[in-house]
Amino acid sequence: REVSPCSTSETDEGREQSRPIFMKNKHYWDKVYQGKLDTKKFRQFSNAELSKILAHFPHAKIAFDLGCGQGFLMGQLEKRGMKAYGVEFSEEAKKQSRASEKIQIADLEKFTPPFKVDIFFLKFVLAFVCRKDFLRNLQPFIKEKGGIVILTPVGRGLVCCIGKRKLKEMCRWFEVVKEETWYEDKKKNRKLVLLILRTNSR
Predict the structure, then answer these.
(1) What is the pTM for the complete model shown?
(2) In the Cβ-directed half-sphere of 11, how many Cα atoms lie within 13 Å?
(3) Strand order in the sheet with 190-199
(4) Contact indicator for 53, 196 with CB cutoff of 8 Å
(5) Residue 202, Cα to own-chain centre: how many angstroms?
(6) What is the pLDDT of residues 33-76, one digit of tens each?
(7) Is 134 exposed, middle or buried (0-12, 13-18, 19+ CB in 10 A)?
(8) How confident is the model at residue 29 (pLDDT cuts 50, 70, 90)?
Protein backbone atom coordinates (compact mmCIF):
# COMPACT_ATOMS: atom_id res chain seq x y z
CA ARG A 1 0.00 0.00 0.00
CA GLU A 2 1.31 3.42 -0.95
CA VAL A 3 1.68 5.93 1.89
CA SER A 4 1.00 9.64 1.66
CA PRO A 5 4.00 11.95 2.21
CA CYS A 6 2.01 13.38 5.11
CA SER A 7 0.81 10.10 6.58
CA THR A 8 0.35 9.34 10.28
CA SER A 9 3.47 8.60 12.29
CA GLU A 10 3.52 7.06 15.76
CA THR A 11 6.41 9.14 17.10
CA ASP A 12 6.77 11.33 20.17
CA GLU A 13 7.77 14.99 20.26
CA GLY A 14 11.18 14.56 21.87
CA ARG A 15 12.27 11.59 19.84
CA GLU A 16 13.99 11.64 16.46
CA GLN A 17 11.49 10.75 13.75
CA SER A 18 12.67 7.96 11.48
CA ARG A 19 11.51 8.66 7.95
CA PRO A 20 9.87 5.79 6.04
CA ILE A 21 12.02 4.28 3.34
CA PHE A 22 9.70 5.64 0.61
CA MET A 23 10.84 9.16 1.50
CA LYS A 24 14.24 8.28 0.00
CA ASN A 25 12.72 6.57 -3.02
CA LYS A 26 12.76 8.60 -6.23
CA HIS A 27 10.13 6.35 -7.81
CA TYR A 28 7.68 7.24 -5.05
CA TRP A 29 8.09 10.98 -5.63
CA ASP A 30 7.92 10.49 -9.41
CA LYS A 31 4.51 8.85 -8.88
CA VAL A 32 3.44 11.77 -6.70
CA TYR A 33 4.23 14.26 -9.47
CA GLN A 34 2.65 12.02 -12.10
CA GLY A 35 -0.58 12.21 -10.10
CA LYS A 36 -0.70 8.44 -9.59
CA LEU A 37 -1.02 8.64 -5.81
CA ASP A 38 -3.77 10.14 -3.68
CA THR A 39 -1.74 12.91 -2.07
CA LYS A 40 -2.55 16.48 -1.10
CA LYS A 41 -1.42 19.34 -3.32
CA PHE A 42 1.68 21.17 -2.19
CA ARG A 43 1.03 24.53 -0.56
CA GLN A 44 2.49 27.50 -2.42
CA PHE A 45 3.19 31.04 -1.27
CA SER A 46 0.59 33.57 -2.34
CA ASN A 47 1.96 36.73 -3.94
CA ALA A 48 1.10 38.69 -0.80
CA GLU A 49 2.88 36.18 1.46
CA LEU A 50 5.96 36.20 -0.75
CA SER A 51 6.05 40.00 -0.78
CA LYS A 52 6.11 40.09 3.03
CA ILE A 53 8.92 37.52 3.10
CA LEU A 54 11.05 39.33 0.53
CA ALA A 55 10.61 42.60 2.42
CA HIS A 56 13.16 41.15 4.86
CA PHE A 57 15.65 40.87 1.99
CA PRO A 58 15.27 44.13 0.01
CA HIS A 59 18.54 43.67 -1.88
CA ALA A 60 18.15 39.97 -2.70
CA LYS A 61 18.94 39.03 -6.29
CA ILE A 62 19.66 35.28 -6.18
CA ALA A 63 17.63 32.53 -4.51
CA PHE A 64 17.86 28.76 -4.26
CA ASP A 65 14.77 26.64 -3.56
CA LEU A 66 15.81 23.43 -1.81
CA GLY A 67 13.21 20.82 -2.64
CA CYS A 68 11.77 22.93 -5.43
CA GLY A 69 9.34 20.41 -6.93
CA GLN A 70 8.09 21.70 -10.29
CA GLY A 71 9.69 25.08 -9.72
CA PHE A 72 6.58 27.12 -8.94
CA LEU A 73 8.38 29.31 -6.40
CA MET A 74 11.26 29.79 -8.82
CA GLY A 75 8.80 31.19 -11.34
CA GLN A 76 7.33 33.56 -8.75
CA LEU A 77 10.80 34.86 -7.89
CA GLU A 78 11.85 35.29 -11.51
CA LYS A 79 8.73 37.37 -12.19
CA ARG A 80 10.07 39.73 -9.52
CA GLY A 81 13.38 40.08 -11.32
CA MET A 82 15.37 37.60 -9.22
CA LYS A 83 17.57 34.77 -10.44
CA ALA A 84 16.14 31.53 -9.04
CA TYR A 85 17.58 28.03 -8.97
CA GLY A 86 16.44 24.77 -7.43
CA VAL A 87 17.40 21.30 -6.30
CA GLU A 88 14.93 18.42 -6.41
CA PHE A 89 14.86 14.67 -5.79
CA SER A 90 12.31 13.76 -8.47
CA GLU A 91 13.19 13.59 -12.17
CA GLU A 92 9.46 13.79 -12.98
CA ALA A 93 9.10 17.07 -11.12
CA LYS A 94 12.01 18.51 -13.08
CA LYS A 95 10.48 17.38 -16.39
CA GLN A 96 7.29 19.24 -15.55
CA SER A 97 9.10 22.48 -14.73
CA ARG A 98 9.33 25.37 -17.16
CA ALA A 99 12.79 26.10 -15.76
CA SER A 100 14.18 22.56 -15.78
CA GLU A 101 17.60 23.80 -16.89
CA LYS A 102 17.93 25.59 -13.54
CA ILE A 103 17.01 22.55 -11.43
CA GLN A 104 19.64 20.11 -10.22
CA ILE A 105 18.68 16.56 -9.29
CA ALA A 106 20.23 15.61 -5.96
CA ASP A 107 19.64 14.29 -2.45
CA LEU A 108 19.43 17.40 -0.26
CA GLU A 109 21.62 15.91 2.46
CA LYS A 110 24.41 15.32 -0.05
CA PHE A 111 23.93 18.56 -1.98
CA THR A 112 26.54 21.32 -2.01
CA PRO A 113 25.36 24.71 -3.35
CA PRO A 114 27.39 25.70 -6.43
CA PHE A 115 27.55 29.39 -5.49
CA LYS A 116 26.51 31.92 -2.85
CA VAL A 117 22.92 33.13 -2.77
CA ASP A 118 20.86 35.73 -0.94
CA ILE A 119 18.06 33.39 0.15
CA PHE A 120 17.65 29.66 0.60
CA PHE A 121 14.02 28.53 0.66
CA LEU A 122 12.95 25.29 2.38
CA LYS A 123 9.21 24.75 2.08
CA PHE A 124 7.77 21.54 3.59
CA VAL A 125 11.24 20.01 3.35
CA LEU A 126 13.07 20.34 6.67
CA ALA A 127 11.26 17.46 8.39
CA PHE A 128 12.77 15.04 5.87
CA VAL A 129 16.34 16.13 6.61
CA CYS A 130 18.06 13.92 9.20
CA ARG A 131 21.31 15.87 9.62
CA LYS A 132 20.98 18.45 12.38
CA ASP A 133 23.91 20.41 10.95
CA PHE A 134 22.18 20.78 7.58
CA LEU A 135 21.28 24.46 7.98
CA ARG A 136 24.64 25.28 9.55
CA ASN A 137 26.39 23.86 6.49
CA LEU A 138 24.51 26.34 4.29
CA GLN A 139 26.05 29.32 6.11
CA PRO A 140 29.16 29.64 3.89
CA PHE A 141 26.88 29.90 0.86
CA ILE A 142 24.73 32.76 2.18
CA LYS A 143 25.65 36.28 1.08
CA GLU A 144 25.92 39.19 3.48
CA LYS A 145 22.46 40.30 4.67
CA GLY A 146 21.03 37.08 3.23
CA GLY A 147 19.29 34.25 5.03
CA ILE A 148 17.02 31.21 5.04
CA VAL A 149 13.24 31.04 4.71
CA ILE A 150 11.55 27.97 6.18
CA LEU A 151 7.90 26.94 5.99
CA THR A 152 7.27 23.72 7.91
CA PRO A 153 4.67 21.86 9.93
CA VAL A 154 5.84 21.60 13.57
CA GLY A 155 4.63 19.08 16.11
CA ARG A 156 3.79 15.41 15.81
CA GLY A 157 1.47 12.95 14.13
CA LEU A 158 2.62 13.48 10.53
CA VAL A 159 5.90 12.48 8.92
CA CYS A 160 6.05 15.93 7.32
CA CYS A 161 6.11 17.48 10.82
CA ILE A 162 9.40 18.34 12.51
CA GLY A 163 9.70 18.20 16.29
CA LYS A 164 10.12 21.44 18.22
CA ARG A 165 13.41 20.35 19.78
CA LYS A 166 14.95 19.29 16.51
CA LEU A 167 13.86 22.50 14.79
CA LYS A 168 15.35 24.61 17.58
CA GLU A 169 18.62 22.71 17.42
CA MET A 170 18.87 23.03 13.64
CA CYS A 171 18.24 26.79 13.79
CA ARG A 172 20.50 27.62 16.74
CA TRP A 173 23.34 28.81 14.51
CA PHE A 174 21.14 31.59 13.15
CA GLU A 175 19.35 34.68 14.34
CA VAL A 176 15.59 34.16 14.09
CA VAL A 177 14.37 37.37 12.45
CA LYS A 178 10.76 36.25 12.23
CA GLU A 179 8.73 33.34 13.58
CA GLU A 180 5.07 33.29 12.64
CA THR A 181 2.36 30.66 13.01
CA TRP A 182 0.27 30.45 9.86
CA TYR A 183 -2.05 27.70 11.04
CA GLU A 184 -2.53 25.80 14.30
CA ASP A 185 -4.44 22.67 15.23
CA LYS A 186 -4.32 22.57 19.03
CA LYS A 187 -6.24 19.31 19.25
CA LYS A 188 -3.66 17.50 17.13
CA ASN A 189 -0.76 19.46 18.65
CA ARG A 190 0.74 20.74 15.41
CA LYS A 191 1.04 23.99 13.53
CA LEU A 192 2.40 25.48 10.32
CA VAL A 193 5.29 27.84 11.02
CA LEU A 194 7.20 30.39 8.95
CA LEU A 195 10.78 31.09 10.02
CA ILE A 196 13.13 33.71 8.60
CA LEU A 197 16.75 33.21 9.64
CA ARG A 198 19.91 35.28 9.27
CA THR A 199 23.47 34.19 9.79
CA ASN A 200 24.49 34.43 13.44
CA SER A 201 27.91 35.99 13.99
CA ARG A 202 28.75 33.85 17.03
Answers:
(1) 0.85
(2) 23
(3) 103-105, 83-88, 62-66, 117-123, 142-155, 190-199, 174-185
(4) yes
(5) 25
(6) 888 665 666 789 999 999 999 999 999 999 999 999 999 999 99
(7) middle
(8) confident
